[in-house]
Amino acid sequence: MTSALVFLDFSEMDYTLMRQMAQLNNSFRIEKLYVAHYIELQEFSGDLKMHFPELDRPLEDVLSEELQERAAESGFDADRIEIVLFRDGSKDNMTEWINHSEVNFCLMGKKIVHKGTGIFSGRMARLLHKPILFTTETSRLNIEHILVAIDFSSFSKKALNFALSLLTNNQQKLTAYHVFRLPGAYFPFIGGDQRNLQNEQTEAKLRKLRNFVADTKRAEEIDLVVEYADEKTLGRSIYDHAKSHFADLIVVGVKGVTNKDELLIGSVAEQLIAVDKDLSVLLVR
Amino acid sequence: MSEKKKNKYFDIHKPVFWPASFLIVTFITVTLIVGEPMEKVFANVQEFISDYGGWFFVAVTNLFLFFCIYLGFSKLGGIRIGGKNAEPEFSTAAWFAMLFSAGMGIGIIFWGVAEPMNHFLNPPLDAGTVKDNAQQAMGFSFLHWGLHAWGIYALVGLALAFFAFNRKLPLTIRSVFYPLLGERIHGWIGDVIDVIAVLATLFGLATSLGLGVQQVSSGLNYLFELPDTVTTQVLLIAGITAVATVSVVLGIDKGVKKLSELNIRIAAIFLLFVLVVGPTLFIFESYIQNMGFYVQNFFKLSFWTESYTPASEAGWQNGWTVFYWAWWISWSPFVGMFIARVSKGRTVKEFITGVLLVPSLLTFLWMTAFGGSGIFLEMTGIESIGEAITSNVSTSLFVLLDAFPLSGIASAIGVVLVINFFVTSSDSGSLVIDSITAGGKLDAPVGQRIFWAVTEGAVAAVLLVGGGLTALQTAAITTGLPFAFVLVVMMYSLYKGLNREYAIAKAEETKADLSSYESRLKDIIAKRGKSNDKPENKNL
What we know:
The complex is a heterodimer.
Chain A: E1 2-7, H1 13-28, E2 30-39, H2 48-51, H3 59-72, E3 81-87, H4 91-100, E4 105-109, H5 119-127, E5 132-135, E6 145-149, H6 154-165, E7 173-180, H7 187-190, H8 194-214, E8 222-228, H9 234-244, E9 249-253, H10 267-273, E10 280-284
Parallel strand pairs in A: 1-2, 1-4, 2-3, 4-5, 6-7, 6-9, 7-8, 9-10
Antiparallel strand pairs in A: 5-10
Helix pairs in contact in A: 9-10
Chain B: H1 3-9, H2 14-34, H3 38-73, H4 92-103, H5 106-121, H6 130-145, H7 147-166, H8 178-181, H9 188-224, H10 230-254, H11 256-277, H12 280-296, H13 298-303, H14 316-342, H15 348-380, H16 386-391, H17 396-402, H18 407-437, H19 446-465, H20 468-528
């Protein structure tokens, strides 16, 4: 049984998110959908009544009703939906609750057009222990091409498996993508042979990627791509490749091979969920 | 005069222009009428202010410097001049060059040899041996020309730049007080601040011009044996001011810009020349050692107030340190405005480190090359130049050059350099004063700038007539004192302004989110708050 959680914030984005959730339902057969909202009233000073003179019953009731209505538009049955409201000052409670819940993955918006700051989504990316899918209002809901960024870590194995579980028909395409750098120490010594070294490395990485993918037993469904990062950051290389090959979704492990405990989220994942990248990203843990 | 014609030549902010002009004209008239006895008056005023206010100058210059360092390295250091997306208008190399040029001027040419030599021959602190005296002389010269001077300029420059580029206020001193006064900066308090700034700038500038012309006169005396008298000096001021006026009329691009570029080149060649013909190895060695001494004795030198010196022997500091601090303070609107205009797009941290270090290091090299060479000649006994320098400080550069090859050409270049600096200082000084008296406009009519260029020359001439070097120093100290108070308040105002900028930047990140969130909640409540009884309305 799959259960999912979607964050709504009462913006237009909510409808996109719910449609996206309906699409994901095709892959996952979602039994239970939590529709969550975080009430951010900390900044409003004084009485709620002052701010909202028309409010004549508990704010939670009003908001729950609205969430229910928004969620219903996507065609989920009311009995599969559960509304969860979190009051401000309790972000820890919220993440705690979600982390201990049965939720298999979360969906949240990453606003590109109606620019938000990405503070909330950034924080969730750090604190939630569940896979999170960040969707932008411009992304295609119908996922036809998935790009999985792979660095051979255990996180990328999970990312690859998750991406495979998203495939529902053989029209969909999945690319396993690896991008590499040459260690800086080589540079002073390699001189003119740099290109050779790059090619050699590309070959070697491609073999490694083939082996890595073979473990899934579904290697025939996966395209393999290896690139040299050159001057770009790894995150930028992944994004650019995804963009230029019309991928609809990037799947990436929350951390990479440099799995440091104190790091809540790796730099590549961080780069990919940054607000300036208008592609859906799925962070897998 | 028709209204239209009037506007063509004058575009003034009356409450600043008239009081400032009135005070200056009164000063000139009184000095001319009283004549010689004014020298006594000047001496008394100088003595009074530096006796009673000396400690204040020492305290505030330290305060300004440490405040700047704090700003640069606190959380506020990340604030960018011109807003967070501003890009530097000049490359870092060009910016450094401009800061270098801000550090060059008449003062350093006049005092470059004279100051270290004077300290060496009359050691302020009894250091003991000759070599200790020499070291201490360089230390005090570095103190006067180093970080403290640039701390003052950095404060004023940063404040002007911040309020002009981040707050879009006019580029004038009163704008800096916006966080404290609000819209009242446009009222009489603002006018008073600007009048003080104009007077400080004008007298600070006149001091430089007066020093410059004394030096030119000594140089001409040395080269052509022209009489080195006040009459010659006044005639020189008239002549050079006329040249400056031509440069003013030609406009910034054709006039002052070309001349400044030329000047910096000549100054660089001049410095290289002395490095080569002078005791080259000694200069490089002592440059390093002097900086070490300066760093090592930084606190001792900069907090020393002559407190335990018996009254009969005291007075050294009044004539030097206090004079310099006052002079730099009175110069600060001038230099501050220049560095403000070239520093858009820099962060506070870049600004502070750049403005404090770049010109200081250059000045130290100059001081070491010129003053150090003088001390070298004196110490090694190759040539005794001390007596000539103490009897007339304005000859010191030429006395030094005399000891080296090609002294005739070098001295002539020195004279040209000073004249040229006179012209560019007068021209750009009138630009600054003009902009303040025109309410912050940068393109005020030429007529006004000619007026200010002539006034600067007149004030310098009058000061020379009324008492020579003492009068010049008095002018700087007297106008520096009120402006020092202005700077203390400026410090607080800038701190408030920067803190607010920081808070705004932080708040802006969440504010956009929150206000749209609030309005979304409002919509939902408006839709549902009272709709319990009529649920079918919800889709309307």
